[in-house]
Amino acid sequence: MDILFTLFDFILHVDQHLQTFVQNYGIWVYALLFLIIFIETGVVVMPFLPGDSLLFVVGAMCGVGLMSYPLSIGLLLSAAILGNQSNYTIGRYCGPKVFGWENSRWFNKKAFEQAHAFYEKYGGITIVAARFMPFLRTFAPFVAGVAQMTRSRFTFFDVTGGMLWVGGIVTVGYFFGNIPWVKLHLDKIIWAMILVPGLLVLAGAWRSRGKSA
Asked: How many CB atoms lie within 10 A of CB 167?
C-alpha cells in the first residue's frame, strides 16, 4: 500500500520530484527519464508510469533552462521508440508460446488471423493514437507483436507516433508549462492527461458495442 501511495504522489507531484532530482543529481536525471519512458512503453506489466505528465514537466523545465531541450527530446524519443520495439518483440515471440498456438485451448486461430488482418490494415493509426493514451500505449505494441504485424510496418508507425508524442508534449510544456495559471493547476492538468484519454476509449468501446449489438 505504501508503494501505491508513493507512486500516486510521484505522478501528481512529478514537477516537484523532478526538480529536486535535477538539483541533487544533475545530469543523471536524463538516465532516470530514459528509464521511466522505456519501462512504461517497453514492459507490458508497467502501464501506470506517468508518461504524459512527465514529458510535459520536462518541457516546462527545459523552458526555464533547468534541462536541455534538444537532449531531452533526443533521449526520450529514443526511449519511446526502443520501448515500443521491446514490447512488440515480447508480444511477437512470447505471445505465441504463452498461447501454445494450435495445441492450446486458449488459442483461437480464426481470432488470431482476424487480429493480424486488423493490425496490417489499421494497426498504423492504432500504434500512433495509442501513444497519447495511458495504458493503451503499453499494450498496443505488445498486441501488434502477438498479431504478427510486420516489423517494418510497425517500426514506421512506432517512430512516427514517438516523434508526435515526445516532440509534441515536451514542446507544449516548453512553451506553456511555466505560465502561472498552468503551474497553479498542474495537478488537475495531470489528472486530465490520465483520465480524459481513458474516458474517450471507453466511450468509443461503448459505441462500437452498441453498433454491433
From this structure: 15
208, three cell numbers? 462500437
What pTM did the predictor assign? 0.76
CA distances from 170 to 56, 75, 117, 163, 164 (A): 5, 12, 34, 10, 10
Q: 67: which DSSP letter?
A: S
Q: Which of 69, 67, 76, 55 is nearest to 25 (CA)?
A: 67
How far is 182 from 22, CA to CA, in rounded Å?
Answer: 21
Residue 80 and residue 44 in contact, taking contact as beta carbons nearer than 8 Å: no
Three-state DSSP at 45 gives coil
Closest of 77, 29, 66 to residue 177, by C-alpha: 66
State the pLDDT at residue 193.
66
Indicate the residue type of 30: Y
Tell me which residue has cell 505522478: 11
Containing 124, the helix (H) or strand (E) segment is: helix 109-130
Are 51 and 83 in contact by the 8 Å Cβ rule? The answer is: no
Mean pLDDT value of segment 169-192: 79
Single-letter amino acid, residue 145: G
Residue 144: all three cell numbers together? 501488434
Residue with cell 527530446: 73
3-state secondary structure of 6: helix
Report whether pLDDT(54) > 80.
yes
